[in-house]
Design goal:
Blueprint (H helix, E strand, L loop, with lengths): L1 H4 L11 H6 L3 E5 L3 E5 L1 E2 L2 E2 L7 H17 L2
Antiparallel strand pairs: 1-2, 3-4
């Protein structure tokens, strides 16, 4: 929902390992883990940053939405 609201393109699809290893940024999204940045797959570093710009954007917006639920 956050991506759609902010017109950020995305696709839910099966991804092959080589696509993940070539990505600029990788994160997992789930009900239990929320948004979890992935920095390394096997021995391959995905990014030198702990949190990429898209992951950071999603994390910040998720917490804003969660806070609004308590109001």
């Amino acid at each position: 929902d956050i991506l759609q609201e902010h017109k950020i393109p995305f696709a839910e699809t099966n991804i092959r390992l080589h696509e993940l290893l070539e990505a600029d940024e990788v994160f997992l999204a789930s009900t239990t883990k929320k948004i979890l940045p992935v920095n390394q797959i096997n021995e391959k570093r995905i990014s030198d940053r702990k949190v990429g710009p898209v992951s950071d954007f999603l994390i910040q917006h998720f917490w804003q939405i969660k806070k609004s639920w308590g109001k």
